[in-house]
Model the fold of this input.
Amino acid sequence: MIAPTRRYEAVRVLDCTLRDGGYYTDWRFDDDVLDGYFEAVANSRVDMVELGYLAPGTRGARGTRVDSVEKFSTLLSKCERECAFMLDAKSFDGSVGSEKLLRNSLANRPSRELTTARIAAHYAKLETIEPLTGIVADCGYRSAVNLMQIDGADERMIEDVAVRLAGCADINIVYIADSFGSMAPARVAAVVRAIRQYTGAAVGFHAHDNMGLALMNAVAAMDAGATWIDSTVYGMGRGAGNLCTEKICALLEAGADSCFDAVIASHFSLLKSRYAWGESILYRVAARERIHPSYVQTLMQERSLDIPATLRQLLAVPAEARASFDPRLLKDVRDAN
Done:
């Protein structure tokens, strides 16, 4: 392994391919894909692997989306890195029943290497964050809060969010998630600095590549003090995809990172051909107009539509409904256009 550049030696890379890529595969990956993936990770600059989603209350395991951390055991046995999972804050309503369900899903941790719970929460909907992170800490996990759609917040809102999070003693990492892929490097740097100013937590950045700026934005985040960077192999992820793991590893190691070449050539190139994530005019427009990427992803599945027709339908989604994906609304839009 090539030695890391001194400038970014404190940065940790979290690969979330199995979770973010799961939006395309229904969180199911063939064994040969998993074996190739974990072999590549073991030889790479990646520090942590996000194994998938924890979804309390669902029935059983569905690949990398599970109802109990116990069901990550097979993946953990393949992984030679520290591991995390994601939990959606919307699944926790603060009730006694919800807390019991969550605690049960977090119990019986199959390995001490499963260290971190990443909690996805909209920046304007943080009501349950403090009790949720408290439960996660009680169960022995590090808490990372991923602030979704943060580019929709103005400076005052970001300050308010940061102050609120600063009051939660159990938060270890605050992630800025560029949910729409709409952020430019200067904006990323400004938000990272604001979060650092008000919280004692480490700061992370999760890029989407709608505008082709994922790597530039990651560099801007690191230069502003972010020490956690998300990525996925070959950029696999919802919508336009994410920062490529192989690119950020190459940058941090000050040289070419060939660890992922084999698994990309054998598997992820085929997955990309099948699911067509990546930068496009549709995703660029969606980023500019703050349209949820699932609208584009769903429209692109209609192979009979050409790009102009798809774009017309995308822009027909009402402005007030663009931030959250509503399949019923999209059906109405498609029927009307």
Summary: DSSP finds 15 helices and nine strands in the chain. The chain has two domains: 6-273, 281-336. The mean pLDDT is 91.
